[in-house]
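Homework help board

Subject: predicted structure for assignment chain

Our instructor gave us this sequence and asked us to write out the predicted structure in token form, then describe one feature. I got the tokens but I'm not sure how to describe them. Can anyone check?
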Amino acid sequence: MKRTVSHASFMRKYLAGPEESAAYLNSVLEDGDVPFLLKAIRTVAGAQGGMGKLAKAVGMSRTSLYKALSPTGNPGIHTLEAILAVYGVRLGFFPIDKRPRPSARRNSPRQARL
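My token output:
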């Protein structure tokens, strides 16, 4: 009996709903890597019916959609909003937390004894 699942089939199952898709896209966005974000959007598209279905829903050609979401793509904000809306996800803006993060050294037991 096979106990493993392929990454692609796991992602298709995991990204089936808007909550999961939003969490996945937010985690990718936190890294600040735009080409990887575009790939993540393609992954969500693949998990929820494919690029053809997305192109019809957004009203774009598949070719234009592939180009916009390619690693060198530069989709406009309206395009991203339209794509994400198909999956029940929206863009948002949040303040940057500028507080310094505690380092592992400051919290280590060895330093606490000093």
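Reply (TA_rk): Your tokens look well-formed. For the description, you could write something like this. The chain has a mean pLDDT of 84. That's the kind of observation they're looking for.
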